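Batch job 17 of 40 flagged for manual review because the log was empty.
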Amino acid sequence: MRYIFSKAIEDLPKEVVFVQFSKEKETYVVQLEGGRKALSLGVEEPEKLTRRKLVLLARQVVAVAKAHRFSRLAFSLQDFRFSLKLSDKDLAELLAVNFGMANYEFVEYKTPPKEGWSFMEEIAVLGKVSSEAKKGLERGNLIAGEVNACRDLVNTPGIDMPPRVLAECAQKAAQGTKVKVKALGKQEIEKLGMGGVLGVSRGSAEEPRFIIMEYQGGKKGEKPVVLVGKGVTFDTGGLNVKPGDAMTDMHMDMAGGAAVLHSVVLAAKLGIKKNVVGLVPAVENMPSGTGLHPGDVLRTISGKTIEVLNTDAEGRIILADALGYAKRYNPKLVVDVATLVGAALVALGQRASALFATDERTSQKIQELGEESGDYVWPMPLWDEYAEDVKGTTGDWLNTSKSRYGGVITAALFLKQFAEGYPWVHLDICPRMIALEGEYLAKGAAGAPVRLLAKMLERL
């Protein structure tokens, strides 16, 4: 989507539709003199508009325009300001990010309609536009592009996105940037002693990959921030096979890995002055005669063992190896991102990811950045008492809890045992895997938490 700048709407072709707001509830198209049209959106109590509501309003503009098959819009930046005290740069970035996200739809596998797809092609910004606002629009466009690229990966059917293809996508996404990518194959993973990755993947005909992405935007020798993403490209549950209706969206179980992949690339495109590493263990979890059994014990890269009670709790097993590998970077901070447990949905619904952090100040700052970015998070406890529920009998740690309660917390406490020697944050994005109705986003992947990770890399 292109942005252009114009002093007045009259200077633009008549097919460009002007965006305006009213205090009425209805949204409608107004026929103006001279054949021009205006898209009028109702904003009740504009003086009470919050940042969260502005995010939805920005998306609504594009969603309504697409429904009317308008491909070119024009707006004044000041009309979107309302009573919010945002800088030109922040306001422009917020609008560009959410315009771009609302303009997305996954159509790769659909036959194009005769009239063509209804996508926004161009948006004109009217009046005097500051250089800071132009920077905000440019940044927002970049961010939306990587969020949508993440959504493409997550929406792709599992048959076309096995671990080897996810690794190829990482290579492709990094082209033209300063990000270096390598993907370790099965033999290299064996040499590292990653028993968790090998154990989960052994039921599949598709071999695992361990994707490593490195971006040096900071000083040489400066401690990096390491992002770790769960990359289960399809999750049947293994021998503890999922019910059929619970398996439909399991090509999306690599959403954390896709978010990490595109967050590292975004860091490079934004020129963030930090050293950043992305680690994505990529596996397919399938039932077969060679698959992982309940009762098996796996030895991870750290030497700690995992007693497998349920093969459908596989994400934490591969993350244990990735968190162990992260230690060799002597990191400033490690952040793992995973669609880990349905218990996060039970705890929080579908509007926020679960946040766990070993440092309270870091947790508070991430929550603030969540509000700013639009990838909302809510803090959960990391109390050591919960670790008792995942202590093993045959192995060191159980991959599922002894208790049926507090599953989102016990899963985090399991991961904590493998995240030693560095500050650590865990984001369970299971609630935000799929876009929610009423968010003015296309059905399918939501692209969380690429926006938040970018803010964290810049500001933490």
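Reviewer: the log was empty due to a logging misconfiguration, but the result itself is present. The chain is about 35% helix and 20% strand. Unflagging and moving on to job 18.
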